[in-house]
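Entry 14. Structure prediction run on the chain below.
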Amino acid sequence: MVGGVGLLVGCATVRLDTPEPLKVDINMKVDVEQKGGTAGKVEMTTLSAGEERRMLSHQVQELKNDHKVGEGRDGLLVLKEMPKDQAYIDYAKTVVAKENGAREKLFAEKALIEKKSEAQYAKEFAQRVRQASYPGEWIQEDDGKWKKR
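Output returned:
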């Protein structure tokens, strides 16, 4: 370098294009639901309980944040507060039913693996989800009383 200025000599040419178009192989299932109805609905019967729950997790959390659902002492979601809008009621009922179906499937799978009854696994699951709940979310205590965490 002379006087703080350097010269670039012999810069290489870099090709960013490809001779063939890029091919992407994607295999996915989509379950799209809107408040007020369903669109593009795909059955989730071939998914595992964990996959179903992951797909529903955002919707479930949205209902928890809106204080519409709570974590029941039996490990299932409970629709605590009915929304005012009928479309939102239908949406909430659908999400809760799907989540609870996936949870019951999970209870059966895990109970078999852990050599426990489904009721025992569900009770332990309920305890874990109550402890993991965020402040302000509805949870049901073992004695049946509801409170906000």
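DSSP finds three helices and six strands in the chain.
Filed with the rest of this week's runs.
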